[in-house]
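Hey, quick one: can you model this chain's 3D structure?
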Amino acid sequence: MLKTVAKSGKLANVCYDIRGPVLEKARQMEEEGHKIIKLNIGNLAVFGLEPPDEIVQDMIRNLPHAAGYTDSKGLFAPRKSVVHYTQEKGIRGVTVDDVYLGNGASELISMAMNALLDDGDEVLIPSPDYPLYTAVVALSGGRPVHYLCDESSEWMPDLDDIRAKITPRTKALVIINPNNPTGALYPEPVLQGLIEIARQHQLIVFADEIYDKTLFDGHSHTSIASLADDVLILTFNGLSKNYRSCGYRAGWMVVSGDKRHARDYIEGLNMLASMRLCANTPGQLAIQTALGGYQSIKDLVAPGGRLCRQRDLAHRLLTEIPGVSCVKPKAALYMFPRLDPKMYPIQDDQQFAYELLAEEKVLIVQGTGFNWPTPDHFRLVFLPNSDDLTDAIGRIARFLDGYRRRHGA
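Sure thing. Here's the predicted structure for all 409 residues.
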């Protein structure tokens, strides 16, 4: 008898349902010849949203010189361009040494958690969240503690709930702004409130700002690190979304604020950066050109731009479905609609997602996959073109009509 090879016990509380069991079922169906409309992942290229051509051409030109390792934190020129970007955002005191380049922001988020957490340390994470945070905190030995965002207040963080969940083991506060999965954009007074909580309890702030240019209706984004010099803040960003370059895996992390008491932690970050040798060099080479070039994302999100049109269409079609409500996103690429529990008495929202996939060949992600506590939400991307989006939401509407009939609501 061969001994069973089991996964690590560290993975017991780790899940990532954006690419979870329902996606595996979708892949099986595709192998059987079914065409699946995938609304589960913000993978822009598959919907024809390509990176700016100057980024592509610059990478091609530099590729012959990209075979060697770089400095463990990354090449000087793209890190310097990130410093300039922080200056544009009003973040003070950032030097090239405070910038780390990574294989997407995801690698850097994992690095930041691994360098910080001991077993049992707690991190405050929004609910709903981008589930990578919950997963990497658990994998790092920490305990994810979810604070609620209030749907009735356009998904703003509940500051009182955050305060109530702080304990002596709380190390950090995660802020995702603009927010995935809700599309919320936090105004400055809310950010000031979050900063004050971090200040009072000496928490590190992890600020995910990967969608900071994907803004609708003329809204602007305030980087939370621009509001405080006395709080340690790690800001994560990258090219994946604003520059439609998911596969390039080009992200950055900026350490700002009061670093005097964090020398040991920063030494840990440097150690982990060195252990992975460096981020991929071709991806690094895209950063300077992207940040310094024409910001074509503005055309996509402007009134009449493709992303703006598709957001408006998706929101209208969803909210026309009986029993479906949705806070209209001010930013990002997602919607997080609510299903009235009286009309849709869902007990298991993963099973709900399975049934939608089986009946209508539409793939979404169930709300509990984003650590939302009740099975009454789901997330979808509004990236397909208008015709495909109309088809997909029409299928969702047809499925929901049948669901109401079957469950007697």
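One thing worth noting: The chain has a mean pLDDT of 94.
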